[in-house]
Specification:
Layout lengths: L1 H11 L5 H7 L11 E4 L1 H7 L3 H12 L3 H4 L1 E7 L2 E6 L1 H13 L13 E5 L11 H19 L3 E5 L8 H12 L2 H7 L1 H14 L5 H14 L3 H25 L16 H10 L3 E4 L2 E4 L9 E4 L7 H16 L3 E7 L3 H13 L8 E6 L2 E3 L2 E2 L10 H19 L6 H19 L6 E3 L1 H4 L7 H17 L17 H11 L1 H10 L4 H20 L7 H25 L8
Helix pairs in contact: 6-20, 8-10, 8-11, 9-10, 11-12, 14-15, 16-17, 19-22, 19-23, 20-22, 21-22, 22-23
The structure holds arginine.
Arginine (ARG) binds next to strand 9.
Length: 565
């Protein structure tokens, strides 16, 4: 309808383009001011005329086309031209859009590939709450892109190479055993790593040994690589448990170790392009002209490092996937790192350098306490998820002990609550976990949205499929409350595109709260099961659409919706 009105106005007024008109037309916050409004102030400046006069002229110009444009009423108020739509027609149009495939959401991404680098934990280290954030945000951005038709390559860039593995091998040989590592997993690897760091000051030879083991790894020594690989397998078992709880998977687990043999070619290319500088034996890219610390490429012993392995990974991905964009979801403390490596790609003269995007996020705290490994305040992501599930189970036992499939619902609600809480605020903001807030059934929470979905499903079950006959009279849905709900359905596509444009799943999370709130208001004010046939029928169709959109939007965040709660 907005498009139709804009087209008509552009026909009438010559001096303005379709895009300008579209941009100008707004949705008033107060519905008494119409469904759309055109503020005439900018036009008044342009045309040197009084805004009220323009608004009046516009109104007169639209009057003959009301029927054709689906307009019920036009008013000019204080320099605004306010347009009221014919609600029944409008409702019909929106509902038939949502009826379409993909809930009426277009797929502009078809034929385009996006690489996404997220989660990426560090082998032999715990999967901490920061990794939980990259996994949740990354997974949602993946689902959002997929919804718009993009082909997404989900890459887990494991931190599986570096001098720390030399230390770990020495620590393992001195203070652990096969049985202990097998039994306690990452916890044991972390224990001996900490022990190495406390012992090394008194025994400098430990550092020598660690260096030697890492050199062996770099030279493909069989024993060194076997131990390293085993640490990797042990760690992966734990990571996979978290991924399973979250319902997350990846297309590639090529981590840092995959790129170590690609760094020599990178060094050659950088040399050819005259970008390398020697600095105390190390090779660097000088970035002082861009106010950045130098980007380290090789250490003085010639070995690769995080930066150079990452640059090699960019080149590999471009060649392998020919991506339209490559996104990196990590904590904001890595912003400089990504600025440096993206700058390196630019200096290497790759004109697609601006298709590389760092998507940073803020810190996590638990009940107000800052989490950090250094102070020993180690929190495992798995523990957070498990605690959420236990708390959800307790709530079910109290509120609905006869519920079927309690275990599954507790998992969906507990995990869903953690995900929603993470995604509801702008990602750059810090997240604080306060259990009462995360799991509340009221307010802006996952359980509130899931509960709304279960409520809609329960209405549909009670009316055994009656919605399938469709709406016979759209007038039924034109009261303020129903109309408001239908209009909210129309916002789904814009929420998805908005979320993608800003790499911000919170746009969809917030949309879900708006939709759930509009639905609950409708549920309280418009009787459904008790209504007359015509009303009942139309309202059931609306309930059905709302539940479909809620479920779909939740899935874009990585949240499952139980049928009953
Ligand atoms: N392993 C890193 C960490 O845990 C994250 C890696 C992010 N991806 C990348 N290509 N640098 O902090």
């Amino acid at each position: 309808m907005k498009e139709k009105v804009c087209n008509k106005l552009v026909e009438i007024y010559e001096g303005i383009s379709y895009e300008q008109m579209y941009e100008l037309m707004e949705v008033p916050t107060d519905e008494k001011m119409g469904d759309y409004a055109i503020p005439c102030f900018a036009l008044a400046k342009l045309w040197r005329k009084n805004p009220a006069a323009i608004a009046n002229e516009m109104k007169e110009a639209l009057l003959p086309f009301m029927q054709e444009l689906g307009i019920e009423k036009v008013e000019n108020v204080g320099g605004y031209c306010n347009i009221f739509v014919n609600r029944a027609k409008y409702v019909e149009a929106i509902m038939s859009k949502v009826e379409q495939e993909n809930l009426g959401v277009k797929k502009p991404g078809l034929g385009k590939t996006i690489c996404m680098d997220y989660s990426s934990p560090n082998i032999a280290k715990n999967f901490h709450v920061g990794h939980l954030r990259t996994t949740i945000i990354g997974n949602s951005l993946y689902k959002l892109h997929e919804k718009l038709g993009y082909e997404v390559v989900r890459i887990n860039h494991l931190g599986d190479w570096g001098t720390q593995f030399g230390k770990l091998i020495v620590a393992y040989k001195n203070w652990s055993s096969k049985e202990e590592v097998e039994e306690k997993g990452i916890e044991e690897l972390m224990r001996i790593y900490v022990k190495f760091n406390t012992e090394k000051d008194a025994k400098p030879e430990l550092m020598e040994e660690a260096r030697a083991w890492f050199v062996k790894m770099e030279q493909n020594d069989e024993e060194a690589l076997a131990i390293w690989n085993w640490f990797k397998e042990i760690s992966m078992v734990e990571y996979e448990r978290v991924y399973k709880l979250l319902g997350v998977s990846f297309d590639s687990y090529k981590g840092e170790s995959f790129y170590r043999d690609k760094v020599p070619a990178l060094v050659e290319e950088l040399k050819e392009k005259r970008l390398l500088t020697e600095s105390q034996g190390a090779k660097i890219i000088d970035l002082s002209a861009y106010d950045m610390a130098p980007c380290l490429i090789t250490k003085s012993d010639g070995g690769s490092i995080y930066h150079s392995r990452d640059i090699a990974a960019i080149l590999y991905r471009k060649k392998t996937y020919d991506f339209e964009k490559c996104l990196y979801v990590t904590g904001s403390e890595q912003s400089l790192h990504f600025k440096q490596i993206f700058k390196a790609i630019e200096l290497m003269n790759y004109d697609w350098y601006d298709n590389l995007v760092h998507v940073p996020y803020g810190l996590v705290s638990l009940e107000g306490a800052k989490l950090s490994t250094r102070t020993g305040n180690i929190v495992y992501a798995e523990d957070i998820l498990k605690e959420a599930m236990e708390r959800a189970m307790k709530a079910i036992q109290e509120k609905n002990p006869s519920l079927a499939d309690k275990e599954m619902v507790a998992k969906q609600v507990g995990v869903g609550a953690v995900i929603f809480h993470d995604l509801y605020n702008q990602r750059i903001k810090n997240v604080n976990f306060s259990w009462d807030e995360v799991l509340s059934f009221e307010g802006t929470t996952g359980p509130y949205v899931q509960y709304t979905y279960a409520r809609a499903k329960s209405i549909l079950r009670k009316s055994s499929g009656a919605q399938e006959n469709g709406v016979s009279d759209y007038e039924v849905l034109t009261d303020d409350v129903s109309f408001g709900l239908v209009k909210t359905l129309l916002g789904y596509e814009a929420a998805i595109t908005g979320a993608i444009e800003r790499y911000e799943p919170s746009v969809v999370a917030r949309y879900l709260i708006t939709l759930a709130t509009a639905f609950n208001r409708f549920y309280h004010e418009c009787p459904i099961i008790q209504a007359d046939d015509k009303e009942k029928q139309a309202r059931l169709v609306l309930v059905d659409m709302v539940q479909r959109v809620i479920k779909d939007a939740c899935s874009l965040l990585g949240i499952e919706c139980p049928e009953e709660m």
